[in-house]
Amino acid sequence: MDDLTIIEQMHVPEPPPSPQTAAAARRRLLQEAAGARSRRIHRSAPLPRSRRTMVLTAGATACALAVGSWMTYKWETRPLYHPEPLAGQSGPASTFLLTAADAKTRHASDGRLWYVHRVVGETVVAASPYRPGVHYTVQTTLDDYSVTAKSAKDFGVHLPYSNKDSAGVGWNGGEVAVRPVSPADMAAWKADFQPGAQDLSLQQPDEERGPFRGEGAELDFDNADALSLPADPSKLRAWILNYATKFDHRRLNDPDLYLFTGAPIFLVDRVVSDRVRIATYRMLAGLKGVRMITGTDADGRTGKGVAMRQTTGDYGTIEWQLLIDPETGRLTASQGIVVTPGRKNAGLRPGTREFFEIVKKAEWTNAPTKSLVPKSVTDPILEPPTGD
Amino acid sequence: MTGAPSGLSRPARPEPEPEPSDAEVIAASRRNPERFAVLFDRHYTEIHRYVGRRLGTDGADDIAAETFLIAFRRRGTFEPAHSSVRPWLYGIATRLISRHRRDELRRYRAVARMPADDVVESHENSVAAAVTAAGFGLSPVLAGLRHGDRDVLLLVALADLTYPEVAEALGIAYGTVCSRLSRARKHVRAALRAAGHTVEEDDRG
């Protein structure tokens, strides 16, 4: 059996939609269609009387339909957001972010490769593998690395069993680490002989950062887009929001929250120019609802940063924090702190760092690619053949 | 013996009218919006099944319905050059699924924690699938993939889209589809081999 068939079979089909469910969905669609029809009728001209008028009107209608279709297409694909002057926010958070932008400007650099090492983590409630009913709260962490070049040529290494045009690679380092969060959790964990992630049936932490998004698309743009992003803050803002709304074409209810939680993607993850990172800070400085904080990352380091809060039924209220080194303009950590738990994180105490990452390195380099990537990733001998 | 005896002729039956293509239905729905229901009737069950396999029934009920509403509102943007709306609908559904990433990961984690015996008992008709899931430990691997890589992998494996269709669905370059799929399958195959499974070649894509 091939791997795709196994994947297909492991996603067990759920029961088909009930007739009531399908009928309800169809009804919603038809209601929407009926609304569209009534709007069309209201726009229609009254029927002509004479034959000549009918011919003329038919011609005019055909032209109008063609123009109308073209205009509909243009209307449906029009960008919802346009570059406009950023809101002039004042206050400590805005000042701090502009300071970070200036610091990043002073430390701007460039290189052939963008290298990132971060530690991603999540806080979860684990069940004791030995004592029924006993639970403790632990942080799981995993080292995550990536090297991305501006082009396949710059990357310079053909990875085994990968597309020849690959311009980057990511990999994880080692096992998922487990650390109890409080002395009581530590005591309970030790009483179980310090079980690891596998013993506790814990998987690697979720790579996702930012909130459980109720709106907007994922910022999964490719490298070509990343390298052509505008370095003007207001243009960058419009580009991001248009990307977010391109598939359903609905304006976001809270664009500022979307931009705030997506910021680490530009500041750390992706191979964008430092000018874009500087623009990201300036864009953040124009957001409403951002406040200055002093936070502590998962390694226990305290630093300054900015935060926004999000409330959802699933995760209650979470404060999303970006910790930034004001001297270098480097994002050092991002994290989501539980303010009030919701349905899906009900077991976590307020103040828990539910989602987090520590940015160990995010920098341009001209080092040889192979010196950055472990041999297990680049050496085909260390990998079993794939059968391709 | 079947068929008409030789020498006898039957009155010619009128040729049944060919079904309009998806693109034709969309064009017609611009003048007659209710025509869009034809596409719902053609593809709703398939989209529901795809979402259900990723998020479960509750998620599928909501997302499949929302997919068609968005498609209807955005029908003006459908490229008439594409005769089928399947990739387009899968693309919308996948974007909506992306808003429920954590739920999807929780499902994988729940399967990973499930003892093999429980899995088999709870899905009478899916013994092979359950044994596969539990025995080869693929759930953690899929949970650990980058989101974009997993989307491509599942559009190929579950929706049976071709590479160009996946590119169309997600609005990404063909080469990006290839590299994401290649990366995802590398992880999956490594896990299968580690579990002692011999990976056979396939001819999909």
Automatic annotation (TrEMBL), chain A:
Protein name, per record: Uncharacterized protein
Organism the protein comes from: Actinomadura violacea
Automatic annotation (TrEMBL), chain B:
Region feature Disordered, mapped onto this chain: 1-23
Protein origin, superkingdom: Bacteria
This protein's UniProt keywords: DNA-binding, Sigma factor, Transcription, Transcription regulation
Domain called RNA polymerase sigma-70 region: residue spans: 39-105
rRNA-binding keyword on record: no
Residue stretches making up the RNA polymerase sigma factor 70 region 4 type domain: 143-187
Pfam families according to UniProt: Sigma70_r2, Sigma70_r4_2
InterPro entries registered for this protein in UniProt: RNA_pol_sigma-70-like, RNA_pol_sigma-70_dom, RNA_pol_sigma70_r2, RNA_pol_sigma70_r4_t2, RNA_pol_sigma_r2, RNA_pol_sigma_r3/r4-like, WH-like_DNA-bd_sf
Similarity field: Belongs to the sigma-70 factor family. ECF subfamily.
The protein, known as: RNA polymerase sigma factor
Organism: Actinomadura violacea
High-level lineage: Bacteria, Bacillati, Actinomycetota, Actinomycetes, Streptosporangiales
